Amino acid sequence: MNHRDQQILKIAVPSIVSNITVPLLGLIDVAITGHLGAAAYIAAISIGSMVFNTTYWIFGFLRMGSSGLTSQALGRRDMLEVSLLLARALAIAFAIAIALLLLQAPLRQLALLLMQPSDEVGKMVTSYYDICIWGAPAMLGLYSLNGWFIGMQNSRIPMIVAISQNLVNIIASLCLVFGLDMKVEGVAMGTLIAQWVGFGMAVSLCWRYYKRHLQFSHSPKHVFSRSAMLQFFRVNRDIFLRTLCLVSVMLFFTSAGSWQGDVILAVNTLLMQLYLLVSYVMDGFANAAEAMSGKYWGASSQVAFRDTVRRCFVWGGGCTVVFTLLYILGGDAFLGLLTNEPTVIDMSHEYVWWAYLIPVCSVGAFIWDGIFVGITASRAMFVSSLLAAIVFFAFYYLFRGSLGNHGLWLAMMAYLLMRGMVQTIIYFKSIRHSLDGNISR
Q1: Model confidence at 437: pLDDT above 60
Q2: What pLDDT score was predicted for residue 123?
Q3: Which residues contact 92 (CB under 8 A, 6 or more apart)?
Q4: Helix or strand or coil: residue 341?
């Protein structure tokens, strides 16, 4: 294993561990409410969690934008800019969080209008939302910090924070729900406490490990300089639009499954768990790609940059082979672990082979996303996602009548493939040679 591979694994492995812990927060909440004696509790937590997950996913540009810009500044050894980027990202995160807090009432009503829960569940969702919304500054601030850490080639701190958050969430929620009989409010408070503990840990670890490198003499004028803010918002605007394309496809995919009945919805939900498993691992290598490619791009190190791109795809290809074999050999068994409903299991056999294609179709999108984040080629990310979304909807409406749910899955595979294909074309047509002659980027 060469030095570049060691660098990739040093960033990728902690990122994978962090990614795996993300769904645990939701699973813990569902598991706790599942023992409260009424299905309404589970429904309320599921809806509340989905509202916040979607909201925070939309603002994921705070993490990705911070990562790419920071890694490039680090590559240039511009520690002043590294410090300014951290301050800038946190300031914008808190500004967005304040807006969410000020608009919490209309946003809550909009969420309830879209989800249309029963009156009983709606009251519980309101209670959950009114508590968890106060975690917005912590969550968005943590997004900015995690992106900055990855840009600094450090994925261990986000991993430590993620694991600690889960432990705090478990302990706090159990004590509040079963110790103080707080029910939904207890779950929400446990989540809120975990979010602020995680943010506090991230700030403490940042100070402990980076205080010698950070420069605090800059004034607000430097933090919010016109040119820097224009660059920051240009990068994050395109990532935001790209995220909207992803959210629209994923939400439509779920909705289109529900239109075909409860059994098809259940089957699609189970198969999407196999997509999520792939994404947790591929995202780890994408994080390594964004940290290292950004660093070498910023340093104008053409050889190291191209070698990083090549080695990240080698690791991505290896993961593709492993996951494809695992799904072919054990896909049915895995689905059987998730449900014992005979109708769902029988129907899943008709569609499980689509899961075999997920790793092959998605590997390019994951790895290129990481590279493009690192070099802040955010416009290319948006263009590829927009074109892929257009292909998704075109395939769905073209084949839904003749292929039914197979048409929906065909549209999803086409969407994943298109993202990777467009990014591949953009890379070889315009990006690969951009380091030559120090072309502006």
Answers
A1: no
A2: 85
A3: 62, 144, 232, 236
A4: coil
Burial of residue 429 (number of CB atoms within 10 Å: 0-12, 13-18, 19+): exposed
What is the rounded CA–CA span in Å between residue 224 and residue 231? 11
Q: Residue 319: phi, psi to the nearest 5? A: -65, -35
- What secondary structure letter does DSSP report for 428? I
Angle (deg, nearest 10), helices 61-75 and 353-374: 50
**CA–CA distance from 142 to each of 60, 97, 132, 253, 373 (Å)?**
11, 12, 15, 29, 18
Distance CA 431, CA 375 (A): 9
Helix (DSSP H) and strand (DSSP E) numbers for the chain: 17, 0
Inter-residue contact 187 to 42 (CB < 8 Å): no
Compute the distance between CA of residue 99 and CA of residue 165 in angstroms, rounded to an integer. Answer: 25
Buried-exposed string 264-279: b where 16+ CB fall within 10 A, e elsewhere: bbbbbebbbebbebbb
Phi and psi torsions of 246, nearest 5°: -65, -45
For residue 155, which phi and psi values (nearest 5 degrees)? -105, 0
- Grade residue 53 by pLDDT with cuts at 50, 70 and 90: confident
Residue 265's contacts (CB-CB under 8 Å, 6 or more residues apart) are: 254, 257, 258
Per the CB < 8 A criterion, the answer to whether 368 and 423 are in contact is yes
- Distance of CA 41 to CAs 44, 196, 265, Å? 5, 24, 21
CB 189 within 8 A of CB 176: yes
**CA trace torsion 332, 53, 381, 356 (10° rounding):** 0
Name the strand (E) or helix (H) holding 287.
Answer: helix 262-298
117/123 Cα distance (integer angstroms)? 9
CB atoms near residue 181 (< 10 Å): 10
Taking alpha carbons only, the member of 12, 20, 14, 25 closest to residue 56 is 25
Which tokens sit at 67? Answer: 């990562």
3-class secondary-structure state, position 440: coil
**CA separation for the pair 392, 260 (Å, rounded):** 18
Whether residue 74 contacts residue 216, with contact meaning beta carbons closer than 8 Å, is answered with no
* Sign (positive or negative) of CA dihedral 132, 151, 160, 163: positive
Among 8-12, 30-34, 166-170, 228-232, where is mean pLDDT lowest?
A: 30-34
The number of C-alpha atoms within 13 Å of 410 and in the hemisphere containing its C-beta is 14
pLDDT at residue 59, as a whole number:
87
Residue 23 or residue 278, greater confidence: 278
Structure tokens at 432: 């690969």
The pTM for the full model equals 0.84
Helix axes 119-132, 39-58, angle to 10 degrees: 40
